[in-house]
Amino acid sequence: MSTINKTSVYPTSFFLLGIPGLETAHIWISIPFCLVYIMAVLGNSILLFIIKSDQSLHEPMYLFLSMLSVADLILTTTTLPKILSLFWFNDSEISFDACLTQMYFIHSLSTMESGFILTMAFDRYVAICNPLRHSTILTHTVIGSLGLAIVFRGALLLSPHPFLLRWLPYCRTTIISHTYCEFMALIKLVCAPTRIRKAYSLIVAFLTGGMDFILIMCSYVLILRVVFNMPSNDARLKTLGTCGSHVRVILAFYTPAFFSFLTHRFGHHIAPHVHIFVANIYLLIPPMVNPIIYGIKTKRIREKFLKVFVVKNV
């Protein structure tokens, strides 16, 4: 414990506290965390296998969905093994470089996820508002270019984050009151001016997740305008039904993301364990529910799953 209480201007490692106030319950909290992680890995792996093996699913929506699944898999694998190691074995130590690397992957992959959700909204917009040109607008070349642009955006805009924190003096403490390393949790340990670094983080957050959300909302405003101009109620319901899974993915991703973002910067009166729980939900729940949402609600994926994994085992 004496090692943990020592501070260093340039620490070689940090110590993750976990969920403040609930340290004695870590072993019990780890059970749902572990189950969610297993479901996320299995669900996204199965979804990727189904989309890859079925040529009829090589359509824009499913290709964007597969990109989202890859980002989900990498994100959960970057964070959950260390969190479970902390909960099970009290393995709280993480090297400084590993902490910065984990922080970079968490923020860059989250940015990529937001971008892929935006491309899926664009697919719904084209399919509903300009259906006759859907196949000519969203060609495989365009889909690949959009995917690369989203990856490049996340990798480039978030690349300064580790360097912004690399040579700062951490003379307050080396204990991170969190289950993983992230920008705002680390910046709080710094005993130097951080206004410019915080401003850059806010600008990047707005230019990525914030702008993505605004554009998604704009696309659905245009979609709803087209839907409400349709002649029959059945046509409206059928068209809106094609957006149902995507809307659920939007809610699962952005609700905890915005709550976590806002409480970190402005919610100083919220209990720490509430914030940490929401921050973990932000990383855990979307990767788990995305394949479930599309697996249950999409008939073609559901039929392919039953054909491959159920019929073969009978």
Helix count? 13
Q: Any low-confidence stretches, pLDDT <50, length ≥5?
A: 1-8
Helical proportion, percent range: over 70%
Radius of gyration: 21 Å
Rounded mean pLDDT score: 88
User: What about the largest sheet?
Assistant: 3 strands, mixed
Percent of residues in beta strands: under 5%
What is the first-to-last residue Cα distance? Answer: 55 Å
Structural class: mainly alpha
Task: Describe this entry's structure for a reader.
The model is unreliable at 1-8 (pLDDT under 50). The radius of gyration is 21 Å and the shape is globular. It is built from 13 helices and three strands; from the N terminus they run αβααβααααβαααααα. The chain has helices at residues 2-5, 26-53, 60-89, 96-129, 134-137, 140-158, 160-166, 183-187, 195-228, 233-241, 244-265, 272-297, 299-310, and strands at residues 13-16, 93-95, 175-176. The chain has 314 residues and is an all-alpha fold. The protein has a three-stranded mixed beta sheet.
Search tags:
single chain, 314 residues, mainly alpha, 13 helices, disordered N terminus
Question: Summed up, what is this model?
Answer:
By secondary structure, the protein is mainly alpha-helical.
Write the layout of secondary structure elements.
Elements: H1 2-5, E1 13-16, H2 26-53, H3 60-89, E2 93-95, H4 96-129, H5 134-137, H6 140-158, H7 160-166, E3 175-176, H8 183-187, H9 195-228, H10 233-241, H11 244-265, H12 272-297, H13 299-310
Parallel strand pairs: 1-3
Antiparallel strand pairs: 1-2
Helix pairs in contact: 2-3, 2-12, 2-13, 3-4, 3-12, 4-6, 4-7, 4-9, 4-11, 11-12, 12-13
